[in-house]
Amino acid sequence: MKRTRTIGLVGAFIFATGGIYACSDSSSPASSSGSSGSSGSSGSSGSSGSSGSSGSSGSSGSSGSSGSSGSSGSSGSSGSSGSSGDAGRKASITIAPYGANGTATGTAKLVEVNGGLALTIDVTNAVPGARGTHIHVGTSCAVGAPGAHFNLDTTNRNAEFANTPVDDAGVGHNVSTKTGTPALTLDVAADGGPGVVGRVLAIHGAPVLLPDGGPELSEAGTPLPPPISGCGVITAN
Question: Is 0.70 surpassed by the pTM of this model?
Protein backbone atom coordinates (compact mmCIF):
# COMPACT_ATOMS: atom_id res chain seq x y z
CA MET A 1 0.00 0.00 0.00
CA LYS A 2 2.81 2.48 0.83
CA ARG A 3 4.52 1.65 -2.42
CA THR A 4 1.44 2.22 -4.42
CA ARG A 5 0.78 5.62 -2.75
CA THR A 6 4.37 6.67 -3.36
CA ILE A 7 4.14 5.89 -7.05
CA GLY A 8 0.94 7.84 -7.26
CA LEU A 9 2.47 10.88 -5.63
CA VAL A 10 5.46 10.73 -7.94
CA GLY A 11 3.27 10.48 -10.98
CA ALA A 12 1.18 13.38 -9.84
CA PHE A 13 4.35 15.42 -9.34
CA ILE A 14 5.64 14.54 -12.81
CA PHE A 15 2.27 15.30 -14.35
CA ALA A 16 2.12 18.67 -12.63
CA THR A 17 5.65 19.55 -13.64
CA GLY A 18 5.07 18.57 -17.28
CA GLY A 19 1.91 20.67 -17.34
CA ILE A 20 3.85 23.71 -16.25
CA TYR A 21 6.37 23.22 -19.08
CA ALA A 22 3.61 22.53 -21.50
CA CYS A 23 1.86 25.76 -20.63
CA SER A 24 5.07 27.80 -20.83
CA ASP A 25 5.99 26.31 -24.21
CA SER A 26 2.64 26.91 -25.79
CA SER A 27 2.25 30.45 -24.43
CA SER A 28 5.68 31.76 -25.41
CA PRO A 29 5.54 31.09 -29.18
CA ALA A 30 1.98 32.35 -29.38
CA SER A 31 2.85 35.62 -27.75
CA SER A 32 5.96 36.18 -29.83
CA SER A 33 4.27 35.45 -33.12
CA GLY A 34 1.31 37.56 -32.09
CA SER A 35 3.51 40.54 -31.46
CA SER A 36 5.07 40.17 -34.86
CA GLY A 37 1.57 40.24 -36.21
CA SER A 38 1.27 43.74 -34.83
CA SER A 39 4.21 44.73 -36.98
CA GLY A 40 2.20 43.30 -39.84
CA SER A 41 -0.26 46.02 -39.10
CA SER A 42 2.40 48.28 -40.47
CA GLY A 43 1.10 46.95 -43.73
CA SER A 44 -1.70 49.41 -43.14
CA SER A 45 0.91 52.00 -44.02
CA GLY A 46 0.75 50.36 -47.41
CA SER A 47 -2.63 52.07 -47.65
CA SER A 48 -0.53 55.12 -48.26
CA GLY A 49 -0.55 53.70 -51.75
CA SER A 50 -3.95 55.38 -51.91
CA SER A 51 -1.89 58.53 -52.28
CA GLY A 52 -1.19 57.07 -55.67
CA SER A 53 -4.71 58.24 -56.43
CA SER A 54 -3.03 61.61 -56.63
CA GLY A 55 -2.39 60.36 -60.13
CA SER A 56 -5.92 61.62 -60.69
CA SER A 57 -4.24 65.01 -60.69
CA GLY A 58 -2.98 63.79 -64.02
CA SER A 59 -6.50 64.61 -65.18
CA SER A 60 -5.19 68.14 -65.10
CA GLY A 61 -4.04 67.11 -68.57
CA SER A 62 -7.60 68.01 -69.49
CA SER A 63 -6.28 71.54 -69.34
CA GLY A 64 -4.65 70.55 -72.58
CA SER A 65 -8.12 71.05 -74.03
CA SER A 66 -7.21 74.69 -73.78
CA GLY A 67 -5.67 73.93 -77.13
CA SER A 68 -9.20 74.48 -78.38
CA SER A 69 -8.32 78.12 -78.00
CA GLY A 70 -6.36 77.48 -81.15
CA SER A 71 -9.75 77.70 -82.83
CA SER A 72 -9.26 81.39 -82.37
CA GLY A 73 -7.52 81.00 -85.70
CA SER A 74 -11.02 81.34 -87.08
CA SER A 75 -10.48 85.01 -86.40
CA GLY A 76 -8.41 84.77 -89.56
CA SER A 77 -11.78 84.93 -91.28
CA SER A 78 -11.55 88.61 -90.43
CA GLY A 79 -9.83 88.68 -93.79
CA SER A 80 -13.38 88.72 -95.09
CA SER A 81 -13.37 92.33 -93.94
CA GLY A 82 -11.31 92.83 -97.09
CA SER A 83 -14.68 92.59 -98.82
CA SER A 84 -15.35 96.06 -97.44
CA GLY A 85 -15.69 98.58 -100.21
CA ASP A 86 -17.02 97.82 -103.69
CA ALA A 87 -13.78 97.44 -105.63
CA GLY A 88 -13.92 94.30 -107.74
CA ARG A 89 -17.60 94.44 -108.74
CA LYS A 90 -18.19 93.41 -112.34
CA ALA A 91 -20.60 94.13 -115.17
CA SER A 92 -21.00 92.75 -118.67
CA ILE A 93 -22.17 94.13 -122.02
CA THR A 94 -23.45 92.39 -125.13
CA ILE A 95 -22.75 94.58 -128.14
CA ALA A 96 -25.12 94.55 -131.11
CA PRO A 97 -25.23 96.65 -134.31
CA TYR A 98 -26.68 100.10 -133.73
CA GLY A 99 -29.47 101.31 -136.01
CA ALA A 100 -29.65 100.52 -139.71
CA ASN A 101 -25.99 101.26 -140.46
CA GLY A 102 -24.26 99.73 -137.44
CA THR A 103 -22.21 96.59 -137.96
CA ALA A 104 -20.21 95.89 -134.77
CA THR A 105 -20.99 92.93 -132.55
CA GLY A 106 -19.15 91.57 -129.54
CA THR A 107 -18.84 91.49 -125.77
CA ALA A 108 -17.29 93.66 -123.09
CA LYS A 109 -16.85 93.66 -119.35
CA LEU A 110 -16.27 96.33 -116.74
CA VAL A 111 -14.50 95.85 -113.40
CA GLU A 112 -14.64 98.40 -110.62
CA VAL A 113 -11.16 99.50 -109.51
CA ASN A 114 -9.96 102.17 -107.14
CA GLY A 115 -10.89 105.47 -108.68
CA GLY A 116 -12.73 104.21 -111.73
CA LEU A 117 -13.47 101.38 -114.14
CA ALA A 118 -11.42 98.92 -116.19
CA LEU A 119 -12.81 97.87 -119.57
CA THR A 120 -12.09 94.80 -121.68
CA ILE A 121 -13.79 94.72 -125.09
CA ASP A 122 -13.80 92.29 -128.03
CA VAL A 123 -15.65 93.08 -131.25
CA THR A 124 -16.09 91.73 -134.74
CA ASN A 125 -17.50 93.31 -137.93
CA ALA A 126 -16.42 96.71 -136.63
CA VAL A 127 -15.13 99.50 -138.85
CA PRO A 128 -11.32 99.18 -139.26
CA GLY A 129 -9.22 101.80 -137.50
CA ALA A 130 -8.98 103.24 -134.01
CA ARG A 131 -12.58 103.39 -132.79
CA GLY A 132 -13.94 105.48 -129.95
CA THR A 133 -15.33 103.40 -127.07
CA HIS A 134 -17.42 105.27 -124.50
CA ILE A 135 -20.06 105.04 -121.80
CA HIS A 136 -23.09 107.16 -122.72
CA VAL A 137 -25.69 108.71 -120.44
CA GLY A 138 -28.58 106.88 -122.07
CA THR A 139 -30.16 103.65 -120.86
CA SER A 140 -31.24 102.29 -124.25
CA CYS A 141 -29.61 101.45 -127.57
CA ALA A 142 -32.59 102.62 -129.56
CA VAL A 143 -31.61 105.08 -132.27
CA GLY A 144 -31.01 108.50 -130.69
CA ALA A 145 -31.26 107.10 -127.12
CA PRO A 146 -27.58 106.75 -126.07
CA GLY A 147 -27.12 110.50 -125.69
CA ALA A 148 -23.84 112.21 -124.75
CA HIS A 149 -20.76 110.72 -123.12
CA PHE A 150 -21.14 110.21 -119.37
CA ASN A 151 -18.14 112.30 -118.32
CA LEU A 152 -18.64 113.29 -114.68
CA ASP A 153 -15.00 114.40 -114.65
CA THR A 154 -14.87 116.70 -117.65
CA THR A 155 -11.11 117.11 -117.33
CA ASN A 156 -10.23 113.42 -117.39
CA ARG A 157 -13.29 112.47 -119.47
CA ASN A 158 -13.64 109.36 -117.39
CA ALA A 159 -16.34 107.81 -119.59
CA GLU A 160 -14.07 107.82 -122.65
CA PHE A 161 -11.82 104.77 -122.75
CA ALA A 162 -8.86 104.42 -125.08
CA ASN A 163 -9.82 103.85 -128.71
CA THR A 164 -10.30 100.22 -129.66
CA PRO A 165 -7.93 99.21 -132.48
CA VAL A 166 -9.82 97.29 -135.18
CA ASP A 167 -7.92 95.41 -137.89
CA ASP A 168 -8.85 95.19 -141.57
CA ALA A 169 -10.90 92.07 -140.86
CA GLY A 170 -13.09 94.07 -138.48
CA VAL A 171 -11.73 92.36 -135.33
CA GLY A 172 -10.90 94.55 -132.36
CA HIS A 173 -9.66 94.01 -128.82
CA ASN A 174 -8.81 96.51 -126.14
CA VAL A 175 -8.13 96.81 -122.39
CA SER A 176 -8.37 100.29 -120.88
CA THR A 177 -8.83 101.90 -117.48
CA LYS A 178 -10.33 105.31 -116.80
CA THR A 179 -10.28 107.13 -113.48
CA GLY A 180 -11.56 110.49 -112.35
CA THR A 181 -13.19 112.52 -109.63
CA PRO A 182 -15.87 111.64 -108.98
CA ALA A 183 -15.09 108.07 -110.02
CA LEU A 184 -17.58 106.12 -112.10
CA THR A 185 -18.94 103.09 -110.27
CA LEU A 186 -20.94 99.96 -110.92
CA ASP A 187 -23.86 101.25 -108.94
CA VAL A 188 -27.22 101.40 -110.68
CA ALA A 189 -27.61 104.54 -112.76
CA ALA A 190 -29.38 107.35 -110.92
CA ASP A 191 -29.82 111.04 -111.55
CA GLY A 192 -26.69 112.85 -110.44
CA GLY A 193 -25.00 109.64 -109.32
CA PRO A 194 -21.81 108.03 -110.64
CA GLY A 195 -23.35 104.63 -111.34
CA VAL A 196 -23.21 103.24 -114.88
CA VAL A 197 -25.18 99.99 -114.53
CA GLY A 198 -28.17 100.42 -116.85
CA ARG A 199 -26.40 102.95 -119.05
CA VAL A 200 -24.93 101.98 -122.45
CA LEU A 201 -21.47 101.31 -123.85
CA ALA A 202 -20.94 102.25 -127.48
CA ILE A 203 -18.19 101.64 -130.04
CA HIS A 204 -18.13 104.18 -132.82
CA GLY A 205 -17.55 103.90 -136.52
CA ALA A 206 -15.66 106.14 -138.91
CA PRO A 207 -16.24 109.90 -138.65
CA VAL A 208 -18.44 111.51 -141.19
CA LEU A 209 -16.36 113.65 -143.59
CA LEU A 210 -17.33 116.34 -145.98
CA PRO A 211 -16.35 116.10 -149.66
CA ASP A 212 -13.35 118.27 -148.95
CA GLY A 213 -12.16 115.79 -146.35
CA GLY A 214 -13.10 117.92 -143.37
CA PRO A 215 -15.39 116.71 -140.58
CA GLU A 216 -19.05 117.40 -140.65
CA LEU A 217 -19.85 120.07 -138.09
CA SER A 218 -22.67 120.54 -135.65
CA GLU A 219 -24.74 123.75 -135.47
CA ALA A 220 -22.31 124.88 -132.78
CA GLY A 221 -19.45 124.52 -135.22
CA THR A 222 -17.89 121.46 -133.57
CA PRO A 223 -17.18 118.22 -135.41
CA LEU A 224 -19.99 115.70 -135.15
CA PRO A 225 -19.00 112.56 -133.27
CA PRO A 226 -18.54 109.49 -135.40
CA PRO A 227 -21.73 107.45 -135.68
CA ILE A 228 -22.21 104.53 -133.31
CA SER A 229 -21.50 101.17 -134.88
CA GLY A 230 -22.30 98.89 -131.92
CA CYS A 231 -24.07 99.38 -128.60
CA GLY A 232 -25.00 97.43 -125.47
CA VAL A 233 -26.60 98.03 -122.08
CA ILE A 234 -24.30 97.64 -119.04
CA THR A 235 -25.59 94.82 -116.83
CA ALA A 236 -24.30 93.98 -113.33
CA ASN A 237 -22.98 90.45 -112.89
Answer: no
